[in-house]
Amino acid sequence: SRELLERSEKLAAVGQLAAGIAHEIRNPLTALKGFIDLMHRKAKGNNKRYLEIMKGEVGRMELILGELLMLAKPQQVHYSMEDVDLLLQEIVAFMSPQAIIHNVVIETSFREDLPQITCEPNQLKQVFINIVRNGIEAMDGGGTLRVLATRSGDYVRIDFVDEGIGISPEKLQHIGEPFFTTKEQGTGLGMMVSQRIVAEHGGRMSVQSTIGQGTTVTIELPIALHRNMTATDEERI
Ligand code: ADP
Ligand code: MG
Q1: What's the gap in Å between 3 CA and the centre of ligand 1?
Q2: pLDDT digits (tens, 9 = 90+) for 164-201
Q3: How far apart are CA 5 and CA 55, in angstroms?
Q4: Smallest Cα–Cα separation from 130: which of 77, 207, 200?
Q5: Spatial separation of the C-alpha atoms in residues 163 and 237, rounded to whole Å
Q6: Which residues line ligand 1 (CB under 6 A)?
Q7: Strands 143-152 and 204-210
Q8: Which of 13, 74, 134, 140 has an alpha carbon 20 to 30 Å from 192's alpha carbon atom?
């Protein structure tokens, strides 16, 4: 509908603006960080303590900027045909040290003949990292995170199923809003960025949760129907 289109255009504009600002702030922040590090090495007593706090806060600013920068269109948009199971396998390996620290076991179950999808693999990997990280962070006492991939109609469907604290219905409404977080060290940007990337891929994302039992995040991405799609074909669609 027209309204939905206007909304998505607005969101895209906000995203571009946020990413632009993040980019401008990153360079001066890097300079600040360098000098703080330098002073910290030489400082003593209270000064050293204050500079440690400054280092921590600058680190947090970098984290937020990093997530905002994900809203920027990648400099080189390079869509390619990818096997989702391979991308997921890569992320599971990448996240396994963090999982181990939190006593979390990650189990995978991928349908064997999964069709390929057309995607920007680096952006999609960022989505998977965000969701896996949330799953791990939701399981304070450890547990199992299941990553399932299957086919559902014209989509590849991925479920991330955790046994974590869950999300109340009131909070569920706010997930994906910029800066909505329940974590002391959270940025509240991971889900918004993920939702945007999935939408840009023509996919959809949903969250189901039961308090005290766990959360399932589901992503559906359209399968690549045109194996030898050329730029002209793409324009025609
Ligand atoms: P952050 O992780 O920095 O808080 P996100 O955008 O990734 O930001 O997530 C927003 C909020 O959504 C989290 O603070 C948390 O309350 C909730 N959330 C997301 N994923 C899960 C999950 N798997 N289990 C429980 N809560 C979740
Ligand atoms: Mg997160």
Answers
A1: 28
A2: 999 999 999 999 888 899 998 888 889 998 998 999 89
A3: 42
A4: 207
A5: 41
A6: 130, 134-135, 138, 162, 164-165, 167, 175, 180-183, 186-191, 215
A7: unpaired
A8: 140
- Nearest-atom number in ligand 1 for the CA of 171 is 16
pLDDT interval class at 230 (50, 70, 90): very low
Q: How many angstroms does the Cα of residue 150 sit away from the middle of ligand 2? A: 24
ipTM of the complex: 0.99
Buried b (16+ CB within 10 A) or exposed e, 77-105: eeeeebebbebbeebbeebeeebeebebe
Tell me, in angstroms, the distance from the centre of ligand 2 to residue 175's CA. 10
- Give the ligand with the smallest distance to the CA of 133: 2
| Per-range mean pLDDT, top range of 23-32, 53-62, 137-146, 222-231 | 137-146
Cα of 182 from ligand 1 centre, angstroms: 7
What pLDDT sits at residue 29? 94
**What is the per-residue pLDDT for 118?**
94
Q: pTM for the complete prediction?
A: 0.80
